[in-house]
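debug: dumping io for the single-chain case to check the tokenizer round-trip. Nothing else runs in this session.
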Amino acid sequence: MDSTAQRAPRPTGRTVAYDPPSAAPPLHVKAAAVLEAGWTGTSTVPSRGLYPHQWSWDSAFIAIGLRHVSPLRAQTELETLLAAQWADGRIPHIVFNPSVPLDAYFPSPDFWRSSAAGRAAGAPRTVQTSGIVQPPVHALAAWLVHLADPGLSRARGFLARAYPRLAAWHRYLLHRRDLGGGGLVSVVHPWEQGMDNSPCWDRPLSRVTPAPARSFRRADLDHGSPEDRPTDLDYGRYVRLATDYRDRGYADGPGDFAVEDPAFNALLIASEYALARIVRELGAAGQGRQDRAERLTAALVERLWEPSAGMFLCRDVRAGELIPERGVSGLVPLLLPNLPHDLAATLVRTVCGPHFGLGGTTRLVPSYDLLGDAFDPHRYWRGPAWFNTNWLLERGLRLHGERGRADALRRGILHTAGASEFAEYVDPHTGQACGATGFGWTAALTLDLLHDRPAWDKDGVTAIKGEDRG
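debug: decoded output
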């Protein structure tokens, strides 16, 4: 009943209570409403104001949660993204919505010039995209979406159509981006790794001459506090790297910035395991994919594990050395099933130790070392806690037998997501919302955690009991 509507007079002489405040909607209803508000008809924007287009790894995480609301929409989410794939196999980090004004987001389509500058790399002609990539969560997302409704997936040929594109995507990364020659994928821009202004990038970025501040306008500051966002100096370097890559026709090769990142490679490995499951679902043998995942895990350990830090570190390919900064990226390999037991145990100790404080000084894992000189609890990836990385770590803890810690982290994620109105990221100590609220992957991963806790199979790919038999 609308409390503002006209009501008939009531007898006096007694107190009448009417229209009591309705109970707050359940968390899953609120989370689903966020995804509904971001749905464009073919994909979901991360945030209507701050991020008004389709983002690559956002859509993968969103599909993982959206499958609990509408498996069909979750399939469509991924299909829309895959339709913008370039002929060389890359999945671009942004697919632009032509109905959004150019000045709503920077860098806009007229900066990337994908169809012209990316012609040699096979950029699509009918849709505008960026020219860089983001972490390869997509095959894992596709498999989980399939499991949500195998009958619908098979009837629509979802995996049969997605598999060739996902295989080409992995082929691009493994063949074109092994810039260090050690079998791991390199990112050529901080935006590709997804943790844009992490202190892990400070050292390699210091070689980059920033673009002049007058050469670009930051639309992100129209929607967020400058104290929560990357600095103008950071942005100038991002613009310079993107400009140089565009002007090379998006050709891959040694440049001013090339970094082997543990989270990017761990997500590729997890998706290789997922591709093995997809191949088997399609009636072929998936052993080759599984073997590749195990070889990549060995390369990850060989090139990026640092015993003295108790975690994985990023490798600066151009300098030929590990970067001595502890970022949450170096904890994400905990989600890998064939990680050596002693390394997994060490990662758990590091997550719960003084550098990240889980279960002690923090309820969610921060994006950067609490004791690091560059730690800032509010500035983007320089300290705040993010929901996607915590979701990955919750899965990793559960996979490696840390059920109590995983349950506590799950409760922390759900409480903080609701209390912060599904914030983009939060202060790791207080849970104070930072960035945008009503954020897509925060709502989506909340939905995923609210559903029955899935078991992890021996391949490290989530499977609800019996679901992979359809």
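debug: round-trip ok. Residues 1-21, 463-470 have pLDDT under 50 and may be disordered.
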